[in-house]
């Protein structure tokens, strides 16, 4: 069945049938706007990301279900990076007219299973025709007590720089996809990232984090954002970068270049005061994710990189810029 | 100057410099997510719309500033249709790499002047490169007391059907644009619609509206949504459709077809109990917009159309469906 047979409003009804009611949703899909009931004493965290065919994803690389999951995951990762709990989301989707209904069914199944896993309810959005490729826009909302919100701007000289999980995997996975690979650990890190929602909330609650961001544009660039917003610099010890075995066997020649500049790992990069690393490690371990201390925050500006032998390392690339 | 020289983060800084602080914004542009402080006792209304080059707009039809205004207006219109006051918005924009910076400056100037006019603050979003045309995604947020929110679902048999302003103008304007016209009343109704924000809020406060929607897909289709959600039918008297002189001179042959099916007027279409029309007219007059009673809500389903001579009228088209 083609979308043209179902029509715009048939498609909306079809999506709506799969969405459960939630007490925080006074009015969900199907009106001019959704009406959400904020939790007393909380602020609303809100973020929006577009994903475009040919820019952010390649339909020959993945099935619709995985693309649905990732489209939500990258937005939930931004909510997680504030230390907030995801609550609601909106989906905008522009579809080429020849897209089979089966594609949309798979895409929505993936998106809604990821939503259920992380406690987010679909409350509205927009469907329209595209004369170019598929375009996806997700707006995700979360909640947190205002005093627990984790910004990019609180890092202080002497803080430790930490990162969850491993870095560089998603970029190495993308290289494999472009060479024709379609499975394995690195490929799945690129196509189906896991937003660190529980770790983000746990770190916020622990009160030991001074600044946080998610690694979407690469460690170097995202740490750069923390440094800029906090008015500090940083020194990274490359020997401490958490690299997976799969990544190391792919990038044996220079394991640091891609680990520093490769985006889309969607790990949490954060700073904590000296001496609170054991606490951060324990908090994240309880949330099911390992943490590594990879450097320190310094006075001044700029990021210094120390190779394993202690000599300065010069990164060949900084990270991803959409217009560069 | 090209965007490539400024870079993604330079562009974000450039936009941020034009946005004023607001006490309801704990954290605005520049972090992983914005943090908004909800007003106690209010619910959050949220809506999202995509606008795609070649589908929703044609860059040869309008200047960037007007496009910026319209991109926000269509979303504010959805907030207005809930009877809510606009508060915040997010902007996602996917830009072809050769777009001159001047284009973005004009676009943002238009969007931000419309935002200021209607009291909405830009709090975040996303900028990325597009390999196709320009793609815009706006998410708008508003607030209202939960008991004053105006849904599509409350119309009852016997209610009067009302609409603000005039209808059909935007569709007639689009026809003129496609024939090469670039100015005049009808063209400006298509390119630069005014969301009926003050009228929407005033109608909500008056408590006389049983159901409301904005006219984005055409009177017939949008009234159809109210009927479906309310479980009612309606009878429209075509002689009462508010048509502008400019529209009438363009569509003299059959003035009703386009007035019923033409979208993008962004007027408010609403139902009120019998006898409360004087009140609704007065409320809207104070908000600076005329109102016409164009029919009645009926038991049953479907929309009956009565020609000026009382005979049944059959509409050649229903309205806009993106996949039809």
Task: Report what the structure shows.
2 copies of one chain form a homodimer. Chain A is of the alpha+beta class and 324 residues long. The first copy, chain A, folds into 2 domains: 7-147, 60s Ribosomal Protein L30, Chain: A (2-Layer Sandwich); 150-306, Alpha-Beta Complex (Phosphoribosyl-aminoimidazole Synthetase, Chain A, domain 2). Chain A has helices at 3-16, 64-80, 101-117, 169-178, 185-191, 197-206, 219-230, 245-250, 255-261, 277-286, and strands at residues 25-27, 34-36, 43-52, 85-96, 121-130, 135-144, 160-164, 211-214, 233-237, 268-272, 291-298, 303-306. In chain A, β1 (25-27) and β2 (34-36) form a beta hairpin. The interface between A and B is large, with 74 and 74 residues. Chains A, B: Its EC number is 2.7.4.16. Chains A, B: Mg(2+) 3 binds at residues 32, 78, 214.
